[in-house]
Amino acid sequence: MSLLDQQLTALEDLDIAALRQRWREFYPGQAPGLMSRELLRLAIGYKLQEQVFGGLGRRTQLGLAAFKTGSKAGWVSAALVPKSGTKFIREWQGAVHEVLTLEDGRFAYRGKTYKSLTLIAKLITGTHQSGPRFFGLRKPADAKVADHG
To answer: How many CB atoms sit inside 10 A of residue 119's CB?
Structure first.
């Protein structure tokens, strides 16, 4: 049995007061007063697993942030985050521009990192552009209409 398995099993034996104490090891402040013993156990168990296996990926974090604010557009943007190692090559006004997707979902361009393709597209063109569209992840709006007609 691994150390993680032992820790998760040990949570099952703790009463609610002990679980609230463990809560403070992983979360700021006290556990919500109405939180059940089972939910406390699951939340602490998640944090223990997160320490061993890592947390949510950037794509999932973006989607959850969009969900939290009620934005459907955020889910679309989150789905467009390419896998790490993906390289985009775009020619613009006679110059070739290369962008590399990094592990954390950010993008490397000319020795600097950026949180979105849109910021890089704006740097390249000097105007606001949809980064995913500029780098070929989305079709222009008029092409979408032609595809469905």
So the answer is: 14
CA distance 95 to 118: 18
Angle at 14 between CA 12 and CA 16, to 5 degrees: 115
Provide the residue-wise pLDDT of the chain in tens; the chain has 149 residues: 899 999 999 999 999 999 999 999 999 999 998 999 999 999 999 999 999 988 887 767 777 776 666 655 555 455 556 788 899 999 999 999 999 998 877 899 999 999 889 999 999 999 998 888 898 887 665 444 444 44
Residue 113 in any domain: the answer is: yes
Give me the domain span that covers residue 13: 3-53
Secondary structure (3-state) at 39: helix
Domain count, the chain: 2
Q: Give the relative orientation of helices 37-53 and 3-11 as an angle to the nearest 10 degrees.
A: 170
- Residue 40: phi, psi to the nearest 5? -60, -45
Per the domain annotation, does 62 fall within a domain? no
Q: Which pair of tokens denotes residue 7? A: 């820790």
- Are residues 91 and 140 both part of a single domain? yes
